[in-house]
Amino acid sequence: MDPFTLIASGAAAAAAAVVVAPAVLAAAGFTAGGIAAGSYAASMMSAAAVANGGGVAAGSLVATLQAFGAAGIPAAGQAIVGVVGGALGAAARC
């Protein structure tokens, strides 16, 4: 495969990942109004609370994903999502 096609595929996948990530968070149950009842996010929160003796620890994966769902993904998080999406997109073309 030529390098241009590989780079273009990676760039397209990176952009798509950044655009789709908020919708994926919402679909999982991490919403602006809090964790949606009966969702995958609710299951994660329940497991985290049981593991931590009744509460969800600040800075945990569940807390971070909920913060992103409520306030949006910050620039650094978008960069990480883009890099991962781009790498997966480029790898899929190989």
TrEMBL record:
Location, primary (coarse class): membrane
InterPro entries: IFI6/IFI27-like (IPR009311), IFI6/IFI27-like_sf (IPR038213)
Cellular compartment(s): Membrane
Gene Ontology BP term (one): intrinsic apoptotic signaling pathway
Keyword Transcription regulation: no
Gene3D superfamilies: 6.10.110.10
Topology in membrane: Multi-pass membrane protein
Similarity comment: Belongs to the IFI6/IFI27 family.
Keywords, sorted A to Z: Membrane, Transmembrane, Transmembrane helix
Protein name: Uncharacterized protein
GO CC aspect terms: mitochondrial membrane
The keyword Kinase is annotated on this UniProt entry: no
Entries under Pfam families matching the protein: Ifi-6-16
